[in-house]
Structures are given as structure tokens and as C-alpha cells.
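I would like you to help me understand the sequence and C-alpha cells below and explain how sequence relates to structure.
___
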Amino acid sequence: MSTMKLAVMGAAGRMGQAIIRAIDERENTILAAAVERDGSPALGKDSGTLAGTGENGITISDDLESALASAEAVIDFTSPKSSVRLAELCAEHDCIQIIGTTGCTAKEDDAIAKAAHNATIVKSGNMSLGINLLSVLVEKAAASLSAGDFDIEVLEMHHKHKVDAPSGTALLLGEAAARGREIPLAENSVRSRDGITGAREDGTIGFATLRGGSVIGEHSVIFAGAGERIELSHAAQDRSLFATGALHAALWARGKPHGLYSMRDVLGL
């Protein structure tokens, strides 16, 4: 397989730098462009030097058009607004887009799905093998444990700089539980509890969010029954696992028909 040329969006951020390091470590991927937002203090800097891999000659730029022209796929862990705009550009340029951005609204998700009519897009709330395997287990457990007997709670913790809640991963796991129960998550999720809330309603899926320190990501799905509790958990210990998953998705997407895919598609789960 020929070397795949990749562009990295948000190249100066923590995930962007992790992705640049992952690209540098693989033999079948090469960094073609590194992009940051207009006005970023990183513009004009060498992307390799910033990521700690050594000077690579790829200067961080805000020129999206040039990045898309030079790359076969773009890796995008930025913001919902930026990801939607990039999806539209990828559709125009017939470029693969790998989206790890979280916090998208239903309208933004619809816009990305529309762009996928003319582009190959892989979007996931989490790019790791472990989390996507966990989502399969959660779906099966939810299908096996009846709503009248087991309540479902999704607990997550991330570093204090994370801007969206619940996390994209927590929502991915909540969606898996909802599929197992054959119910729509939007109509059955409980996002907050405060004051006199009354008894817990059977069949709902609760979310609890913790933020603090430098935690990369910890998620648990709790099935609480009378006299017993089942917990399915995952802890991310290094951001590189998300970068590795994103590169795996990009290579998998090569030659795939236009459409919107998930990491469960990539991993065959």
C-alpha cells in the first residue's frame, strides 16, 4: 500500500500534536499539511518541532484549501463549527475526513451527514478500540437486562479543560445502551439532578459528569439492579491511542464509497 498523505487540523493542540507524532511513527503515513485557526500563535511554526518529533519542514498554516489539495485525508479533532465547514470542503474536494470532534448539535450532525453524500467521512465520539468494543458490550448488556430490573447510569471524567459535557464518548455509550433497549436516547436521557427530583424513572439512562486535573478520559456504564451492580469500564491512559485509532480509520477509509461511517464500521464491530 502506498504512503497516505494526511493533513492535521488543530495541529498545535494536544490532540493535533499527538496525531503528528503518530504519523511520524508509522511507515505508511506522511504529514502533508498542518492547519490551525486564523490568528493562532502557532502559525508559521514548524509542526514537527512543536510536536516534539524534530523539524519536518511542514509549517503550520491557516490555508485549508491548500491543505486539502495536498492530502488524501484530513484528521480533525477541532470544534463542531470547524468540522462542519471542513466536511463541506471535503465534499467539494472529494477528500476523506476523519472526525474526532465532540459536542456537535443535531443540526451540525445533519450537516456532516449531508456532506458525506459527496465525501468519505468517519466520525466517532472516540477513536479507541477499547471504547468501541465497550460500546458493543454495553449494547448487549442493555438488551439482556430489562429496564424494570436494571437502571443504567453513564459516569465519565475528563481533564478540567474539556469544554463539552457529557463527553462524546459518554454519549456514544449512552446511544449503545439505548439501542440495546430499543429506545431513543434523546427522549430517555437524564443529564442533571438537583433538588427534589422524585424517584428515578424506569427505563431512563442517566449521565454523570466529572471534570478535574489532567484526566485523559475515564468512562463507566453502570447497570444497577436490586442487590447487585454490573460495571463496564474503560480508562484512557495516553492520548496516543486516539491518534492511532484516527490513523487506522484514515487508512481503512481509502477507496471506500462516499458515506458517513463510524469506528464500529472501521473495526468491524
The radius of gyration is 19 Å.
